[in-house]
Amino acid sequence: MKLVDTHCHLDDPSLRNDLDSRLAKARTDGVCAYIVPAIYQEQWQEQAEIVAMHPDLYSAYGLHPCYMQKHRNAHVAALEEKLVEEGAIAVGEIGLDFYLEHHDPHAQQEIFEAQLGVAANLNLPVLLHARKSHDILLKYLRKSKLQRGGIVHAFSGSLAQAERLIDLGYLIGFGGGATYDRAQKLHSILKALPLSAIVLETDAPDIPPSFARDVPNTPEHLLAMAKIIAERKDVSLEDLASATTANAERLFGLKFNNANLAD
Questions:
Q1: Which terminus of the chain faces fewer neighbouring Cβ atoms within 10 Å, N or C?
Q2: What are the Cα distances from residue 25, in Å, to 15, 54, 215, 223?
Q3: Where in the sequence is the domain holding 24, given as residue range(s)?
Q4: What is the DSSP letter of 175?
Q5: What is the pTM (predicted TM-score) of this model?
C-alpha cells in the first residue's frame, strides 16, 4: 500500500530538527512521496535545499496569499526561473484568502492571476489555497484554462463548488480537517465525491488531526488520517490509498515508489 502526502511544509522550523526520523517513520507506513510547496521568495532556497536531501520529496514554489506583505512584483518573474531551475512539479502554494482580516482582494487576485500565467507557460499543475474565495477562484481557473489542473488543498468550500472544480480538472485535498467529528459538512462532501477526484494531505505542520491536535502535524500522521478518512467515506483503506496515490501520480505525471515496500 502506498500513500502520497500531496501538501506538507517540511521546511517549517517546527519540523526541521527531527525531519529525518519523522520521514523514516512515515515511509514505514507506506508514505512514498511528499509534495513540499514554498510560500514566499525568501524561503524558496531553504526549501530547495531540504528537498534536495530526500529523493521522495518534490518541490513546488509559489507566492501564498497569506504573505502578501512579503511579495514584490519582481517575484513573479523570479518564480518562473526558480520553478525551471529546481525542476519543480507544481506551482504552489498559490490562491486567494478572503478570510484574512484586512486582506486586499485586488492585490491577491492580481498576483494569483500572474502565477496562473506562470503555470500555463510552464505547463505545470497548481497547488491552491482558498478560504472564503472559492467562487472568485473558480472564475480565474475558468479563464486560465490550465491543461494540467491541480489540487485545491484543505478544501473548505461547498459540494457544488467542489463539483465545479472537478469539472475543470482539479482534485480536492482532504486531511486533518476531515478527522473531526464536528466536520459534518466536510464529511458529506467527502462521501459525495468520487474516489477519482480526491487526494490526501497533512498540510504539516498545520491542520493537526483530531488524535494529535495539540502538537504540530507531521507526515507520520498520514496513515492514521487515511484510516479515518476511509471510514468517513465508507471505503476500504486499501481502496482509498490506491485511488488517491493514482490520482496524484496522474496529476504530477510521476510514478511514486517506496523503497520500504515491495511493489
A1: C
A2: 14, 14, 17, 11
A3: 3-252
A4: -
A5: 0.96
